[in-house]
Structures are given as structure tokens and as C-alpha cells.
Design a protein that fits this description.
It is a single chain. The chain has 110 residues and is mainly α. It has one domain.
């Protein structure tokens, strides 16, 4: 269980770095914010790429499992940054995504 929590935490930090790295350019391009936001966006995306290298599994398996965490972090972003209320379908999707992440990430070694 401790391994799952560590892995989930790493996935969630990785997802946050990716979302920030994509959200800042969105602010520039869609809301006319300062182009200087591209600088922290690039740093955030570099941190995202580095964090992906810290995952112990093969790259493809890491990306597949990471998708579940990304979905949950994106929904949290939707709620707390965009201010949109989540629905029961959002919650169900998050549970399914996290379940998929756990199945992929915690499969027995061969």
C-alpha cells in the first residue's frame, strides 16, 4: 500500500507539472496574458519530463498508468482553478481512472 501511495503521489506531481506547463500558454493565447508566462510554462514542462524519468516501470507502462492520475488532477484543476463544480460522472470517471492506474502500475513482476 505504501508503494501505491508513493507512486500515486509521484504521478500526481507529474500531472500537476504538465497541466501548469500547458495552462500558462493557454492563458497567453486565449486570455491575452503576458508572453512571459511561456518561461515558467517551459520550466514546468521540463520538470514534467524529468519527473516521468523517475517512474520505475517501462516508459509505455508508466504513460498508461499516468493517464489515470492525469485525469484526476485535471478534474481537481477544473474544480479549484476553473471553479467548475464536478458531477457524479466526473467522480465515477476519476474512480475508474485511478482503478486502471492501480491495475497497470501494481501488476505482479514477471
Amino acid at each position: 500500500m505504501t508503494e501505491l501511495l508513493k507512486l500515486a503521489a509521484l504521478f500526481f506531481v507529474t500531472a500537476l507539472a504538465e497541466i501548469i506547463g500547458c495552462y500558462l500558454p493557454w492563458l497567453v493565447l486565449k486570455q491575452g496574458k503576458s508572453a512571459w508566462l511561456f518561461v515558467p510554462a517551459a520550466v514546468s514542462l521540463a520538470v514534467f519530463a524529468w519527473l516521468l524519468t523517475l517512474h520505475p516501470a517501462a516508459a509505455g507502462r508508466t504513460y498508461a498508468a499516468y493517464g489515470g492520475a492525469y485525469i484526476c488532477v485535471a478534474l481537481l484543476w477544473l474544480r479549484f482553478v476553473d471553479g467548475v463544480a464536478l458531477t457524479r460522472f466526473d467522480a465515477l470517471g476519476a474512480v475508474l481512472a485511478l482503478s486502471g492506474m492501480a491495475v497497470i502500475a501494481l501488476q505482479p513482476e514477471r
